[in-house]
Specification:
The complex is a heterodimer of chains A (109) and B (112).
Chain A (H helix, E strand, L loop, with lengths): L1 H19 L3 H11 L1 H4 L19 H13 L5 H8 L3 H12 L10
Chain B lengths: L1 H26 L12 H7 L5 E2 L5 E2 L8 H13 L5 H8 L3 H13 L2
Antiparallel strand pairs in B: 1-2
Helix pairs in contact in B: 3-4, 3-5
Classes of the chains: A mainly alpha (109), B mainly alpha (112).
């Protein structure tokens, strides 16, 4: 019994960081308003060849990209406009949404 | 009569001059086969699932396999011009020609 409790406590600790990360369902709603027109609702159907596939991309990379667009560190007038409307929480939420969707994106040799 | 021809020619030249850079950029066709001896500089980070950058901030390097080729070329150009600023990528992109970029984009865009 004690061991089960210990294991449960450890599991909760391990799971905790995920709970602090973005909320994918809130991200889905925000993405539908801000991102979907160009990247597709799931981020796997860009409307033009120069727009990246976001579905399946690493969550922390998406957070970094959006944060850099918002601050202007990554200079792109179109993405600065959209990223500026997102709060830090929105950024984490949409990153959680897109990173959990499926696409052909992968690490490769 | 002569004036209108001259004006027409001038207009044609202006149009041609304006259109040229765009046409040139699109004319660089990527060759995935040619990229095979250029990808060694990419695989050390992008070829390892779950690999993270250590500097300047810790995060997963993006997955580029299966990404849209035009986006990859634009990203490399942006690193070369300094519009994007990751130190390793700026260094690597500086060494790439437009042909190299197109080849790498074709390779990763089609890579499975």
């Amino acid at each position: 019994m004690k061991r089960t409790l210990t294991i449960a406590a450890l599991a909760a600790l391990v799971a905790a960081p995920a709970a602090w990360a973005g909320d994918a369902s809130a991200g889905k709603a925000k993405a539908a308003q801000v991102c979907a027109a160009c990247h597709g609702p799931e981020g796997n159907k860009p409307s033009a060849p120069d727009q990246p596939i976001l579905a399946g991309q690493h969550e922390d990379y998406l957070v970094k990209a959006l944060t850099d667009y918002k601050s202007g560190r990554r200079a792109n007038p179109i993405m600065k406009g959209f990223a500026s409307t997102l709060s830090s929480k929105d950024i984490e939420d949409v990153a959680a949404w897109f990173s959990s969707q499926s696409s052909d994106l992968h690490s490769t040799r | 009569m002569f004036t209108s021809i001259r004006t027409g020619l001038l207009a044609a030249c202006v149009v041609a001059a304006l259109a040229a850079p765009v046409a040139q950029a699109q004319n660089v066709a990527g060759n995935a086969q040619a990229a095979k001896n250029k990808v060694s500089m990419c695989t050390g980070c992008h070829g390892i699932p779950g690999y993270k950058t250590a500097f300047p901030k810790v995060y997963h390097v993006p997955k580029i396999g299966g990404q849209q080729p035009v986006y990859i070329v634009n990203a490399l150009k942006a690193y070369k011009t300094g519009e994007r600023s990751h130190p390793s990528m700026v260094g690597i992109a500086a060494s790439l020609s437009e042909q190299d970029m197109a080849d790498l984009a074709a390779y990763y865009g089609a890579a499975k």
